[in-house]
Specification:
heterodimer; A: alpha+beta; 5 helices; about 30% helix; B: alpha+beta; five-stranded antiparallel beta sheet; 11 helices; about 35% helix; globular
C-alpha cells in the first residue's frame, strides 16, 4: 500500500493560454484544482463536480473537457485554454465575450466562462452554426438564470462578427 | 479530492501489461470519466493509475480482413460519432454515440472505458450487445476473445481480470436486410430505459431478431421474446409487435431506481420495444 501521507509530486509541463508552464503537482489533482489553486486562474468554476453542469469547461487541444474530472497530469504536452486565455494580453475581449455582454447573456455569471469556452470550440469547428446546432452543442452546459435564449443569441451574434440579428 | 495514487504512463502495450501484472491495487484508464468520478466520491480507491493514452495498439477505427468493424478500446465517443467508416458500416452506433452523456464526456471518455466500467445505463453496451459485438482482451499470458454479452456480468462487474486490458471491440458486418433501431428515455443524462433492436428481413420475412434492453436491470439483457418474430411476414410481424413488447417487459429484471419503480421500468420497456420494432419494420415496408 502506498504511503498516503507522503504527497509526492510529479513534474507537469503543458501549454496554458499560449505559454509553456512547468510546475509540480500531485497526480491526484484535477486540472480545475491546479488552475484555480496553484495557478490562481479562478475563471474556471466548479459547481456540480460531476461533469454534468459545464461550469468547469476548458479546452484541451481544442476539445471541451470537464476540468473537474480531468487529471492535471493528463494535460502533459497538451495545449490548455481557459476563459482567461480568450482575452487578449492588452485586455481586449474576444468577440464571444463581447457578444455575451451585448446580448445580456449572463446574470450571476457562474456558468458564463463554461458557456463561452464551449461556444468558442463550437465556432472553431462550425464558424456559421444554425440556431439548432448551437443548442445541440451547448446542451451539456447548464444555466439557472437566463433561460438560455440570450446565450444562444450571443453565440449567433459572435458568429455573425458581432452584428445583432 | 481524489485520494492519492501513483501515476504511470506506459508507452507500449507490453509496458502497460507488465505494470498491471506487477502492481497491487492498480487500475488502467484512458479518459477516466467514470473512474475518476468514482474515486472522487469514494466509490473506488486505487494506489496506482495506469494511463493508457500512449498505447498505440488501443487506438484506431478500421475494418478487418474478415469485414468486421474494429474499434480500438481507447477510441473516444466523439471519434466514433465523427467516424466516416462507422457512418458507413454501423451508422446506428455513430448516431447513438452522439447521445452519450454530454460533449465533454464524449470528447474524453472511451468506448473501452465505458464497456469495462459496466455501468448498467451504458448506451453503447446495450447497442453493441444487440450487434453481437466481440471483445479482444490481452494480458501478459496472451490474447483472448469473448462475446460482449458474456463479458458484462453485473452492474460494474465484468469478466476482465485485473491484469487484463481490453484491446478492441469487434462487430460482425451487418448482413443485407438488417435494420437497427435504438430507443431510449432519459430524464437527465443517463437513460431510465433503453432498447436496441436488430432485425434482418430476408425474402419478405424476419430471418433474425435481437432485442436488448438496457438501464432497466443490472446489465444489458437480451430478450428471448425476440424469437417470436422469426419467420413472420409483413402484417403478421407488425401485429406481433405489442405481444412481443409485452413479453419483453415481463422478461426483464427491472430494478427500482430513484423515482423509477420496477413497474415504471417495465412499462417503459414495452413502450420502447414497440417503438423500436415499429421503426425497424417501417424501414422494411
Amino acid at each position: 500500500m502506498i504511503d498516503r501521507t507522503a504527497r509526492p509530486t510529479v513534474e507537469l509541463s503543458f501549454e496554458l493560454n499560449g505559454r509553456l508552464r512547468q510546475l509540480s503537482v500531485e497526480p491526484r489533482e484535477t486540472l480545475a484544482e491546479v488552475l484555480r489553486t496553484r495557478l490562481a486562474l479562478t475563471g474556471t468554476k466548479v459547481s456540480c463536480d460531476a461533469q454534468v453542469c459545464g461550469t468547469c469547461s476548458v479546452l484541451v487541444d481544442g476539445l471541451v473537457v470537464s476540468a473537474c474530472t480531468y487529471l492535471a497530469v493528463d494535460a502533459e504536452g497538451r495545449a490548455v485554454t481557459t476563459i482567461e486565455g480568450l482575452t487578449a494580453d492588452g485586455g481586449e475581449l474576444a468577440p464571444l465575450q463581447q457578444a455575451f455582454i451585448d446580448a445580456a447573456a449572463f446574470q450571476c455569471g457562474y456558468c458564463t466562462p463554461g458557456f463561452i469556452i464551449a461556444a468558442s470550440a463550437l465556432l472553431a469547428e462550425h464558424p456559421a452554426p444554425s440556431r439548432d446546432e448551437v443548442v445541440e452543442y451547448l446542451e451539456g452546459n447548464i444555466c439557472r438564470c437566463t433561460g438560455y435564449e440570450p446565450i444562444i443569441d450571443a453565440v449567433l451574434q459572435a458568429a455573425r462578427g458581432g452584428e445583432p440579428a | 479530492m481524489i485520494p492519492p495514487f501513483e501515476h504511470h504512463r506506459p508507452g507500449s502495450l507490453a509496458e502497460a501489461l507488465d505494470l498491471l501484472a506487477g502492481l497491487d491495487g492498480a487500475a488502467p484508464y484512458a479518459g477516466g470519466t467514470e473512474l475518476l468520478q468514482a474515486m472522487k466520491i469514494g466509490f473506488a480507491r486505487f494506489d496506482h493509475l495506469v494511463d493508457l493514452k500512449q498505447v498505440a495498439e488501443l487506438r484506431g477505427i478500421g475494418q478487418g480482413e474478415d469485414g468486421w468493424l474494429e474499434i480500438g478500446a481507447a477510441t473516444t465517443h466523439r471519434q466514433i460519432e465523427d467516424s466516416a467508416l462507422i457512418h458507413r458500416l454501423l451508422p446506428a452506433l455513430g448516431a447513438l454515440e452522439r447521445q452519450v452523456a454530454n460533449i465533454r464526456v464524449r470528447n474524453v471518455g472511451t468506448i473501452g472505458g465505458n464497456l469495462c466500467f459496466a455501468e448498467p445505463h451504458s448506451d453503447p453496451a446495450t447497442m453493441l450487445v444487440a450487434c453481437d459485438a466481440r471483445l479482444e482482451l490481452a494480458s501478459a499470458a496472451g490474447r483472448r476473445h469473448v462475446q460482449l454479452a458474456d463479458f458484462i456480468l453485473d452492474a460494474f462487474t465484468t469478466d476482465r481480470d485485473d491484469a487484463e486490458l481490453l484491446i478492441a471491440v469487434r462487430v460482425p458486418p451487418l448482413r443485407p436486410g438488417t435494420r437497427i433501431s435504438y430507443q431510449r428515455l432519459a430524464l437527465t443524462e443517463r437513460p431510465v430505459a433503453s432498447v436496441a433492436c436488430r432485425l434482418r428481413v430476408e425474402a419478405g420475412s424476419i430471418a433474425e431478431a435481437a432485442i436488448v434492453v438496457g438501464s432497466v436491470g443490472m446489465r444489458p439483457a437480451a430478450c428471448a421474446a425476440a424469437g417470436q418474430l422469426t419467420g413472420l411476414v409483413g402484417a403478421d410481424a407488425r401485429q406481433a409487435i405489442s405481444q412481443v413488447a409485452g413479453a419483453c417487459s415481463e422478461e426483464v429484471d427491472a430494478v427500482h431506481e430513484g423515482d423509477a419503480s420496477s413497474d415504471y421500468k417495465r412499462h417503459l420497456t414495452a413502450v420502447l420495444v414497440r417503438r423500436a420494432l415499429a421503426e425497424c419494420l417501417e424501414e422494411a415496408a
